[in-house]
């Protein structure tokens, strides 16, 4: 088992202090490189709302910090990169009738609808499920360990992946592969994700972070202005289509979904470790 790391001192070449973080760790493994680790391994690195707000502020700080050129994003432990939203907290929010709980502009984890300026490399050290997979889908380059799996299990919980994954998956994988994933909630293993073009490489767990950081250094060795402009230029058509589709999904469906009895039932069944008892749909 890996030992959770502790945040290392901020180097002198960082101009401004990064935002306060309770649920993630920040490190600077090399000049120009930011390493961010979700530090909730006992909860499969799922993110409560507070963690998403923290990360949203952190990615904005990263984009504004002059000497940072590339980031690596991973999770603590060897089981999960991010198991998505803290569904138990989400159920509690639904019960209070406060459905609109503000996420940052970048979406879940500050990333699912982030455009940003600078690249973020994923070192997917295990499961990337739900919102965790949505983060992966909107990252720039992905490395994964052999035990990594990817899935959108929302249909199993009575909800939907409306943070950006549905249109992004459609653009990346095509109609039929996307429907296979989103209508069943099945887990896609790392080998299949590589075959589908999602992953750059599958790397043994013990070398995963080292490989991702080395790759980030390759990116950081290039002109930072050219990297920013090239990235944004390539994403332009992606953002024009995906962002609007995400907004439409949230505008048309999100509140009705979260207020439905089946959403409450799906989340309650998850918490109580039982099979859900679905009710007729009146959407």
From TrEMBL:
| Record-level GO BP terms | fatty acid beta-oxidation
UniProt pathway: Mycotoxin biosynthesis
Q: Name one GO cellular component term.
A: mitochondrion
Keywords of this protein's UniProt record, alphabetized?
Virulence
What Pfam families does the record tag this protein with?
ECH_1
InterPro entries associated with the record: ClpP/crotonase-like_dom_sf, Enoyl-CoA_hydra/iso
Q: Which PANTHER family match?
A: ENOYL-COA HYDRATASE (AFU_ORTHOLOGUE AFUA_2G10650), ENOYL-COA HYDRATASE-RELATED
**Which protein are we looking at?**
Carnitinyl-CoA dehydratase
- Species of origin reads Ophiobolus disseminans
